[in-house]
Design goal:
373 residues; alpha/beta
Length: 373
């Protein structure tokens, strides 16, 4: 509850400012500028209504060589979606200078619930007690739809759980999305028949905003049983739309493309724990891919730990979703993955499976042997 205001669900945002910035003054600018904007004598007599919308600075404290400020916003200032949330807590202010959004505490019912999450995806696949293993079709570009089916046949006799398109591959003439799905469906059905449990192919859903939702519905109608979305390219609202649509109803895997542009600068942007963690979880993703700290992209142990917590924290009162460490994943680092994540993770490997010198089938078996070991 905001002191002096009526009881209302709150969004609590935490910002970090580098040294040399007056954090207290900037927090007050955020509290007013991101809610009322201004209020002068023209609105005398409307104080109570305005106070119900106003942000309040809760705390300003030193943090290393900088400072942190906590600001409370009435959740009623939003439409309980991620788009209006980000517009309120950081939208215009993100242009104001050095400041980083590092945490968000949301009301328990804020956002779009993932349709599956960890529990639902395990039930869907019939897998308990171990990580899930996902492969990525490689090469990313230049293959035909028939080539994708051939690659899938190469791992059909393994216990691989999921395969996905590369995020770069859209609805291109060389292998149109529906043709890839149609070519792979018979292989997927054969895998199900052999093992007696499901197998998922996450088709990359792409296109303009005015067509993407219809494309996703059409793919599901043709048998797509999972979708891949470049969430930060198309926006969290598109992820929410896919997760809410009753005509879709399949697991959604969120790709981190563009995350570095939002999160990599230390004194600007939004923390990875929000970009790839809480915001993805509260926008409806079932699996969130992100760099692994010992993979091929720069990602710190601290960032990794915060992302894992944001995706799986039971205190969030929201369905936990799978973290998916990616980029340079090989069987040799599986023990380190298990040490960091426990068993609730999706191991996401591309070149280490489909470009493996031993062949894709042996590469998948090497991943399972590393898990068993």
């Amino acid at each position: 509850m905001i002191p002096g205001a009526s009881s209302t669900p709150l969004v609590i945002a935490t910002y970090r400012f580098p040294s040399g910035v007056d954090a207290g003054r900037q927090a007050e600018i955020i509290a007013i500028g991101q809610t009322l904007g201004s209020a002068d004598a023209r609105f005398a007599g409307r104080e109570q209504a305005l106070a119900a919308c106003r942000g309040q600075v809760l705390e300003v404290r030193a943090d290393g060589d900088g400072a942190r400020a906590q600001v409370a916003f009435p959740a009623a200032n939003t439409e309980y979606d991620i788009g209006t949330l980000l517009t309120m807590v950081f939208g215009k202010y993100s242009l104001a200078g050095p400041a980083r959004l590092v945490d968000l505490r949301l009301p328990p019912d804020f956002g779009t619930r993932p349709r599956f999450g960890i529990a639902g995806l395990r039930a869907r696949l019939g897998v308990a007690g171990r990580p899930l293993l996902m492969a990525i079709f490689k090469p990313a570009l230049g293959l035909t739809a028939a080539d994708h089916a051939t690659l899938l046949r190469a791992v059909a006799d393994t216990e691989l759980d999921l395969v996905k398109d590369d995020e770069i591959l859209g609805n291109l003439a060389q292998a149109p999305t529906r043709e890839r799905l149609r070519a792979c469906r018979p292989v997927i059905e054969a895998i199900r028949d052999r093992r007696g449990r499901d197998f998922l192919y996450a088709v990359n859903v792409t296109g303009r905003a005015d067509t993407l939702l219809a494309t996703a519905r059409a793919l599901v109608a043709e048998g797509a049983n999972a979708l891949l979305l470049n969430v930060l390219v198309y926006g969290y609202p598109m992820l929410e739309a896919l997760a809410r649509d009753p005509a879709i109803g399949v697991p959604i895997i969120a790709h981190p493309a563009l995350a570095g542009a939002l999160a990599l600068a230390p004194d600007h942007g939004i923390d990875y724990a929000l970009v790839l963690g809480r915001l993805m979880r509260h926008a409806g993703a079932d699996v969130v891919l992100h760099p692994a700290r010992f993979g091929s992209l720069p990602f710190s142990a601290a960032d990794e730990s915060r992302v894992i917590t944001a995706l799986t924290d039971s205190d969030d009162l929201w369905p936990a979703v799978f973290p998916g460490p990616s980029a340079g994943i090989k069987p040799a680092i599986v023990p380190a993955l298990l040490a960091d994540y426990g068993r609730n993770l999706v191991i996401n490997a591309g070149s280490a499976i489909f470009d493996a010198a031993t062949g894709p089938k042996a590469a998948v078996e090497a991943f399972f042997a590393a898990m068993d070991a």
